[in-house]
Structures are given as C-alpha cells and as structure tokens.
Amino acid sequence: MSKKLFIILIIVALTGSTFFFKKQIKNFFYLISSPTQKTFWRWQDKTSDFFSAFLKTGVLIKENEELSRQIQQLVQEKVSLQEFKKENQFLRKALDLGLEKDFELKAAEVIAKDISGNLLVNKGQNYQISVGMPVITAQKVLVGKISEVYQNFSKVVLITNKESSFDAKITVKDIAGVIRGVGDSGLIFDLVPQDKEVKEGDILATGSLSGIFPKDLLAGSVKTARRSDVEPFQHIEVIPAFNVRELERLFIIADF
Amino acid sequence: MARFFILISAFFILYFLVLFQTGFLAGFNIAWRLNLVFLAIIIFNLLEKTQNKSGLILTLTAGFFLDIFSEKFWGFWMLVLLISALFIKYILKKFIGLGFKSSRKSKWQTFLVK
User: Fold this and answer.
1) A176 forms bridges with which residues in the sheet?
2) Element (H, E) at A1
3) Crossing angle, helix B36-47 and helix B76-94, to 10 degrees?
4) CA–CA distance, A155 with A144 (Å, rounded to integer)
5) Closest Cα to residue B15, out of A198, A33, A89, A160?
6) Longest Cα pair distance anywhere in chain A, in angstroms?
7) Global pTM value
8) B-chain residues near A40 (CB < 8 A)
C-alpha cells in the first residue's frame, strides 16, 4: 500500500511540476508537431472543398451569379471613387495633412485550431509578437487578436469567440454598435436602437472608439435584423467576413 | 515486453489522434466536436482488466497531450480523463457480470493484457 501511495505521489508531483513549465512544454510540442499539423490543416481545406462541391452545387451556382452581379456593381463604384480619391489627395496636399500610415504587418501561417477554437500561428516572441495584437487577412478582413504568446508560436482568439467584443459600425449608414462573438462562427451586432434601418447584406467594419482594433477593418455582413417592441435594441445576426477553414496566411498588426 | 511496446505504440497513436483532431478535424463544424482521444481512452479502459493500471498511465498521458492543445487551465483534461477512467474501472468492478469476467475475455483483451 505504501509503495502504491509513493508511486501516486511521484506521479502527482511530476504532473504538478509541469505546471511551472507549461509554456515551454507547449512551445516544444508545437515546434515538433507543426509540420504534421500544417499538413493536416491544408488537407482539411481541400477535403471540405471536395465534399462541398457535391453537396452545394445549387447553392454555389446561385452564389456565383450573385457575386458576379456584385463585382459589376463594385467596379462601377470603384470608377467613381477614383475621382474622389484624386480630389482627396490634392486637398490633403494643399492643406499639408499627413496621410495615414500603413500598418506594420508581420506575416504568419496558421498551423492548427486547438480544442477551444483558437488558431495557432507560427510567429511568437522571437518575432516580437505580443498579446492584444490584431490579426487580419491579406484582404484586411478582421480575424481576431493574439491571446497568448510562446517562444515560436502564438494563439489567436477569433472575433467569433464568446469572450470577444469590439465596437463596429455599418459603413455607409454610420450606425454604430458592438459586435460580440457567440461561438460556432457566429456574431451579433448589439446595442443598435430600434429606430435605425438595418438591412440584410449591410457591411460592418471596426470602429475607432475602443481602440482594440484599427478602424475600418472589414468584420462581416448582416445576416438578419429583427426588431422588437419589447426590447431596447435590435437583434442583428452577422456573418463573419472570413471562413476559418480557408485561413492559411494571416497578418499580425504590430503597430497601428 | 510486448505490453511495453503496445503501451509505447498507444502513446504515439494518442499523440497522432490529437494532431489529427486539431489539424484536420478542426475545420469541420460537426466532426471536430468529437474528442477522439477521449473516446479512445474510454474504449481502452473498457477493454482493459480492472486490476491493471496501464490504462491509467495512458489516461494521464492522453490528458497531458490534450492540455497542450487546449485553452483550459493546465491539468483540466488530465483530471477529466482520470476521473472518467477511474469511474469506468469502478463500474466494471461493481458490475463485473457485464461481460468482462476473465472467463469471458474477448480475444482483444487476451492479446492486450495479461
């Protein structure tokens, strides 16, 4: 009995001692696993695309038509905006205003998604990454922010995480509110008064009030907007602008 | 000796399952909710003889691997899996007539444990 107790105590002591080195242990295992995990991550993207092609043919055709129509609309808008851009640059020069600086970006690759739903990327303390840095895609779509940093890796908490919230606005209508994550790739646009007109398809971007993220980063689009006489705010569901399965290369904003 | 090699192989299989779950299955909304490692540990402890302890060592190792790839506090999965494994062993001991008596050991049990 005493021998058994001794063995149990040794096991408990060894397990407890790993607590003090958990960051180093995690970093070591991420380092040795990253080639395998990266390969699995690429495979799952291809596999889900393969099955989607069979299951969603009708939906894809419809989506393709809708996207073609939107592209045409955007091309027209772009042409008219070019003129405004020229005028804007001329006026800034005339008034001697500084142009907004670009972000300082650090490229990173997605290695895996952990059991809690956070992404693991291959940049860490060795690249001066720190907690709180925003993470975006190449198209300036907001993905999340750095939640934990190891020597060679970092964890990214997605904006769809239940603990994530930040100020945002519907760009063309200037309607401000707060985006909250609800888990399972879902977002809610909260604190929007009942009298504001919100429609399906409205684009949401980050605001500048909270300072958590740089402003005007694309966050998502409105899926449904429901008004109620008994509640002070509308219930607005938002589709995130990114698809977590297709995330391979991300950018960490080191300075904004 | 054979049992030692089987245990080592089981460690590597568990590690592979964790990588598979966080790398491949993570992208699928429904599939990744399945904790393959948890399932593997339950199955192993169900098949193992109640007086053997190698299942518990495997359980602790599996919990350790899950803790590495989890955001929960360190030791969470080790604790959860250990409690589950001990519970399974307790139930099997108490209700040993449910098919795990030594006289009705399956071929798998005979191969895996002494």
Assistant:
1) A169
2) none
3) 30
4) 10
5) A33
6) 88
7) 0.68
8) 19-20, 23-24
CB A199 within 8 A of CB A238: no
Distance from CA of B104 to the nearest CA of A (A): 29
Cβ-based contacts of A19 with chain B (< 8 Å): 74-75
- Please indicate whether, in this complex, the C-beta atoms of A115 and B75 are within 8 angstroms of each other: no
Q: Which of A40, A45, A155 sits opposite B19 (nearest CB)?
A: A40
Task: State whether the Cα torsion A52-A56-A60-A61 is positive or negative.
Answer: positive
pLDDT tens-place values along chain A, 256 residues long: 677 777 777 777 777 777 788 888 888 888 888 888 888 888 877 777 777 677 777 788 888 888 888 887 787 788 778 777 877 776 676 665 544 456 788 899 998 887 777 899 999 999 999 999 999 988 889 999 999 999 999 999 999 999 899 999 998 888 899 999 988 778 999 999 888 889 888 899 998 888 889 988 999 999 999 888 888 898 999 999 988 888 888 999 988 7
Closest in A26, A40, A244 to B20, CB measured: A40
Question: Smallest CA–CA separation between B30 and chain A, in Å?
Answer: 10
Taking contacts as CB-CB distances below 8 angstroms, the residues of chain A near B21 are 115
The answer to whether the CB atoms of A48 and B28 lie below 8 A apart is: yes
CB within 8 Å: B24 and A184 = no
CA distance to A177, A180, A231, A237, A250, per residue, from A188 (Å): 10, 5, 15, 5, 24
Residues 6+ apart with CB under 8 A from A17: none
Question: DSSP letter at A41?
Answer: H
Over its C-alpha atoms, chain A yields an Rg (Å, rounded) of 23
Contact between residue A40 and residue A34 where contact means Cβ atoms under 8 Å apart: no
List CB contacts (< 8 A) between B37 and chain A. none
Interface size between A and B, measured as CB pairs under 8 A: 79
Complex ipTM:
0.72
Rounded to an integer, what distance in angstroms lies between the CA atom of residue A192 and that of residue A215?
19
